[in-house]
């Protein structure tokens, strides 16, 4: 769960939920960006052509990395900006902008060496100053105070960056050692800092953005359409909320892409199958109900991958109307028993998925298998827990423990009818245990994120909400699950440290990245305990892990499909 793209490292990405059928290999790339590796040159591979991919709903307006909260914006950014290091299809950390790194003997400092071939798309070489600017941005007051700073945690472990710094100030723990060498230091050894945080830092073009005060970045021309990038494709035109056109980067570190243009279009999954069949779209995530239909189209192929993410039903625990009720763990446990998640997988996903039982999906190496089959469908157990929590029944419906009418609402995203269908199922399951829940009319995904992010007093209209997390490979919960994390406060608000469960959560999160956690068995033990805690406390109601189903034209070759996305776009080609 990290990076509205990039990585959760348990970190996070607020997505439309896996119910969007995955955004195809393309957008799943936002969970890990596009881990580019060595390109294999072959005389028989043709160059040229246009690749068309899709977003199921509108992307955000800010294209400087990490500024926008939309997964879809981050997905486009992931094609234009490479991070320091990448993950491959096996979940292994691999070189990218950085070709080599090593730890100091005390493991408090990591030294990095930039690949001497790494350039911006206009041919200018990437230097340590560009990395420094990327760090300064994430540590700055402008980013953390103005743009919510969801990913400020990526640099907080660097000495001097624990709190937001004046714009343009470099944390004392970041040192430039040469044009292509730098180091980052922390106060104590951290077993997860590289894979979960520092690897995902994006260098930014110092010769462009270094001349603009960070407070003005949002209104800059570069933010509306970055003119250079370090990724396989570079933006050339943007129709806000509708499409992004990108061209091949001739100086891409791993070789100029074979495909000349990559276009992102906003097309609902409800109608994208027609555009796939006609050839207007090259690759897209599809709904499970359309799998058999796609199989009948001669020019299309399918990839079905287990998802490294899951859908969930969240409750604003600080909500001014029902926050006290949502904060009652027995309420959330009752909801988990009340929802027939196995039936959802069959009815909505046609069997392409599994019930989700905790903060990590089964595909994750660190998943605690002891959580399998927890919270089996049981309306009887749900009613028992609600009765114990004093949600009494009056005129057929539950009231609050204080006797007020209890009519919570659930907010869902527009752009995909499957989301509305699943929400209808959720309503039916909750109605069956006398919770009079109402599904609100769908609204734009970015509007949901905005309302969640601006709800410090609990007075925004969102009470319950139906979304999902898109994760990366490292399970580090920092960035999302600590009581101090911005993404926690702006989604569920499970932040009350007076709650012993929240305090234990913070303690376990600290232990899983401590010096002792360099031992994999130790880290696994702590992460197992943490997953059990969240399974019992249910700060959000875990629903399903839906397989990522991608349909693509058979004239597209070279794609490596994985649970972490469709990888290596510079290798893809059309014929």
From TrEMBL:
UniProt domain Solute-binding protein family: residue ranges: 93-486
Family: Belongs to the bacterial solute-binding protein 5 family.
Pfam families linked: SBP_bac_5 (PF00496)
Gene3D superfamilies cross-referenced by the UniProt entry: Dipeptide-binding Protein, Domain 1, Dipeptide-binding Protein, Domain 3, Periplasmic binding protein-like II
Matches recorded under PANTHER family: OLIGOPEPTIDE-BINDING PROTEIN APPA, PERIPLASMIC BINDING COMPONENT OF ABC TRANSPORTER
Cellular component, GO, one term: ATP-binding cassette (ABC) transporter complex
Signal peptide as annotated in the record: 1-30
GO molecular function (one): peptide transmembrane transporter activity
UniProt protein name: Solute-binding protein family 5 domain-containing protein
Keywords: Signal, Transport
One BP annotation, GO: peptide transport
InterPro entries associated with the record: Peptide/Ni-bd (IPR030678), SBP_5 (IPR039424), SBP_5_dom (IPR000914)
């Amino acid at each position: 769960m990290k990076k509205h793209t990039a990585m959760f490292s348990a970190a996070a990405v607020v997505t439309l939920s896996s119910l969007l059928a995955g955004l195809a290999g393309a957008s799943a790339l936002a969970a890990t960006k596009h881990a580019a590796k060595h390109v294999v040159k072959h005389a028989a591979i043709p160059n040229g052509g246009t690749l068309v991919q899709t977003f199921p709903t509108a992307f955000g307006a800010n294209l400087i990395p990490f500024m926008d909260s939309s997964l879809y914006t981050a997905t486009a950014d992931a094609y234009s900006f490479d991070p320091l290091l990448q993950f491959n299809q096996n979940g292994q950390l691999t070189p990218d902008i950085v070709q080599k790194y090593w730890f100091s003997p005390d493991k408090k400092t990591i030294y990095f060496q930039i690949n001497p071939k790494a350039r911006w798309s206009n041919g200018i070489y990437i230097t340590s100053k560009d990395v420094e600017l990327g760090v300064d941005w994430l540590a700055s007051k402008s980013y953390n105070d103005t743009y919510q700073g969801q990913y400020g945690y990526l640099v907080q472990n660097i000495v001097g960056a624990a709190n937001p710094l004046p714009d343009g100030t470099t944390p004392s723990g970041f040192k430039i050692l040469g044009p292509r060498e730098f180091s980052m230091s922390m106060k104590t050894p951290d077993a997860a800092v590289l894979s979960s945080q520092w690897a995902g830092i994006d260098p930014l073009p110092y010769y462009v953005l270094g001349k603009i005060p960070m407070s003005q970045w949002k209104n800059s021309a570069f933010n509306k359409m970055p003119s250079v990038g370090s990724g396989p494709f570079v933006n050339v035109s943007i129709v806000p909320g509708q499409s992004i056109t990108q061209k091949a980067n001739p100086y891409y570190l791993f070789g100029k892409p074979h495909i000349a243009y990559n276009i992102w279009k906003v097309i609902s999954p409800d109608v994208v199958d027609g555009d796939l069949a006609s050839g207007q779209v090259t690759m897209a995530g599809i709904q499970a109900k359309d799998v058999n239909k796609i199989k009948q189209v001669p020019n299309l192929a399918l990839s079905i991958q287990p998802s490294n993410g899951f859908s969930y039903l969240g409750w604003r625990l600080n909500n001014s109307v029902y926050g006290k009720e949502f904060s009652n763990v027995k309420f959330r446990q009752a909801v988990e028993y009340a929802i027939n998640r196995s039936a959802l997988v069959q009815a909505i996903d046609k069997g392409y998925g599994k019930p989700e039982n905790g903060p990590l999906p089964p595909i994750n190496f660190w998943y605690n298998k002891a959580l399998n089959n927890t919270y089996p469908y049981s309306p009887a157990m749900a009613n028992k827990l609600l009765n114990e929590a004093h949600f009494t029944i009056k005129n057929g419906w539950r009231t609050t423990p204080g006797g007020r009418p209890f009519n919570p609402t659930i907010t869902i995203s527009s752009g995909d009818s499957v989301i509305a269908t699943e929400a209808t199922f959720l309503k039916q399951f909750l109605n069956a245990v006398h919770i009079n829940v109402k599904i609100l009319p769908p609204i734009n995904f970015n509007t949901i994120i905005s309302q969640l992010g601006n709800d410090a007093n609990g007075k925004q209209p969102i009470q319950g909400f139906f979304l999902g997390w898109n994760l990366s490979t490292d399970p580090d919960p920092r960035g999302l699950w600590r009581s101090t994390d911005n993404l926690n406060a702006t989604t569920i608000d499970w932040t009350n440290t007076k709650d012993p469960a929240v305090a234990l959560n913070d303690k376990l999160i600290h232990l899983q990245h401590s010096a002792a956690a360099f031992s994999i068995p130790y880290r696994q033990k702590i992460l197992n305990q943490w997953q059990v805690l969240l399974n019992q406390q249910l700060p959000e109601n875990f629903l399903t892990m839906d397989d990522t189903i991608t349909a693509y034209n058979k004239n597209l070759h070279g794609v490596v499909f994985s649970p972490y996305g469709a990888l290596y776009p510079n290798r893809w080609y059309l014929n």
